[in-house]
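Hello Y.,

Per our agreement to keep a running log of every chain we model this quarter, I'm adding this entry. I've kept the format consistent with earlier entries: sequence first, then predicted structure.
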Amino acid sequence: MGDMFRSEKMALCQLYVQPEAAYASIAELGEMGCVQFRDLNDQVNAFQRRYVSEVRRCDEMERRVRYIEGQLRKDDIKMPHLDAEEEPPAPNPREIIDLEAQLEKTENELHEMSSNSASLNANFRHMQELKSVLENTEGFFSSQEIMNLDSNRPMESDDPAATQSAAQRGQLSFVAGVIKLERFFSFERMLWRISRGNIFLRRSDISGLCEDDETGHPVLKTVFVAFFQGEQLKQRIKKVCVGYHAEVYPCPSSAAERAGMIKDVSMRIEDLKMVINQSADHRSRVLSSAANHLARWTIMVKKMKAIYHTLNYFNPDVTGKCLIGEGWVPVRDLPTVQQALSRGAKISESTIPAFMNVISTNEQPPTFTRTNKFTSGFQNLIDAYGMASYREVNPALYTCITFPFLFAVMFGDMGHALVLIAFAAFLIIKERQLASIKEEIFTIFFGGRYIILLMGLFSIYTGLIYNDVFSKSMNIFGSGWRNQYNTSTVTDHSTPYLTLRPNISNFKTYPVGVDPIWQLADNKIIFLNTFKMKLSIIFGVFHMIFGVCMSVVNFIHYKKYASIILEFVPQVLFLLLLFGYMVFMMFFKWVTYNDSSRDQSLSPGCAPSILILFINMMLFGHQEPLDGCKEYMFEGQDMIQTVFVIVAVICIPWMLLGKPLYIKATRPKQLPAPNQAAAPSGGHGHGHGDNEPMSEVYIQQAIHTIEYVLSTISHTASYLRLWALSLAHAQLSEVLWNMVFSNGFRFSNYTGCIAVFIVFGAWSVLTVGILVLIEGLSAFLHTLRLHWVEFMSKFYEGAGYAFAPFSFKQILEDDGEN
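Predicted structure for the entry above:
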């Protein structure tokens, strides 16, 4: 946890690497994942860099890998999953040549098989359509007279008698083919128009679905035969067939010729089937072999491309015999980086070892917080608001406790908490198996599994304090109240209600939480309202005070000691003297006023309203007390309140003018160097640069002062959401019990068991869906707002940028998500 107090120290390093050892050294650094490289060639075009040809080679290999992967998906062949320990390292230069040759060979082989398969399938499809044409046109011709009806046989012009006979009765020709059924009716109208009705069209639908030549999808097709006269009309019909993508096939009019042709086509179809099956088997073997290696090929190509892309960030020295790179490295990882460079030089058998040099800079380093699987969820909540400035206090460390606690204040129910714990425990126990699931919504819940676990555990505690289990209370220690009335008084229906006075009926304090007798009280909601309302204000004020105090840590770290006097002191005084005093009055009222007091002014009936006292304090007003009561809770309270308000008002110009006047007074003595950058600000920071005009300084400080004063009031009221959601959750739980589950107890005998079983199912679904899921998400979002706005705004600047190291693991994870 010590690593999370603030971000790690970073160092800007220069790396000196020999060109022959550069590839292996960057590969080792990529495996370590602890260097964020800077682009030293940002002014150079991407196509003019040193390793652009290698990057293009990697792009080509990546394209081939995608092509092979597409062929695998096309044939529904799944690649075996590689575990993290099975991932191959980046290939060395010798392996790159072999990998490139293997990918080229596999791609060419698949290309050839795909083209051959497309040709065979097209031929097979045409043979099937031809067979359908020959079979379905059987009824279109007369078996007794041929009448020269042959689409492929020209007229014999050597016989004058035949020519004269044909001329007398007219030569009748035909065209046969296959067309999509959806296009046939438009095709028929078009033929009718171009022939002016001088055409006779017949069709016969092909049974079953046929494969579309263009899309490959199954479609309905039909066989057509068009009878006509004249060569000119025949050419027109063929042009229409081309326009409608209708396939025209030869079809003899003689039954004997058709039978012979059908037999020949059937034999060719069987031959094609055999060849297609053999080609499919060969393709399957090639793809299965490629699938076994494709995952490793993919990782190797991605790592190789990332290495050359990173090497393009390096600059050659003047002699060209050394590559110089720069990058941010966590100080703790400097020995690791040096070891990785040494390993890279050893692998490449370089005679000159690579070395690293830490350089000083005024540039703001990136922010890096080392986390584990438990703390990463809480850190992600903070980073979603804004990346912390370099070495700024990290709120995630305290959020690990305050976040689940404030959630539990709103969600406090032991029964519902057990549901959360069970769900979180399942995610944690099965985290190895569930980590591979990449579904977006599930990934969010899985990443926050430890947050859900802590929210459930804290809700167990608050549920115990509220004594609330599915809207029912537990009588573990025995109630501290006793009945002071006799039986006749209790059973008298004319008495609307009975009052139990604490000094008579209360004989002990319930050890832990709320006494279960409040479950039966008519004023239960009134009591819990006041209890939870005051509790939410108390937690809110302490939470905000803690946030303001955290700004001191930032001021000390950034050596802004004047800000402690000029910002922290007036801020914390303003908060303590107003709302801290209000919290004090709550505790004083609880301790002082009780039913056992003999002084009437200290009885519960004389207890003043904290809200009215606070309003009168701010307005310097007064309120006449009841007879026998006092306006104030203790002597001298009026004078103390007046002093507190005056000091709080003085704090406003203190915050408004203190820092600008200090900057104005010290500016001539602290002129920065020309190239010196302003130190990062912290603690609700908004640091003012030394070169900034004083008018800007006054305006910014005025904005921050107004923001703090107004937000102190609004943020205190904002914590009332703890009371509101806690009350709403308890009431919804009680409504579900009374309106749903209790109905199952109205039946007797065996019907009651069945009714309870059915009603329990409905009640449990509504409980999990509404009270656990929806109410839980609502409480989660409200808790997130309390941390982002009410807590972190007191000290957190969030103006940094994240540390993004060159890491193979991160590159592969990002590619997997995309």
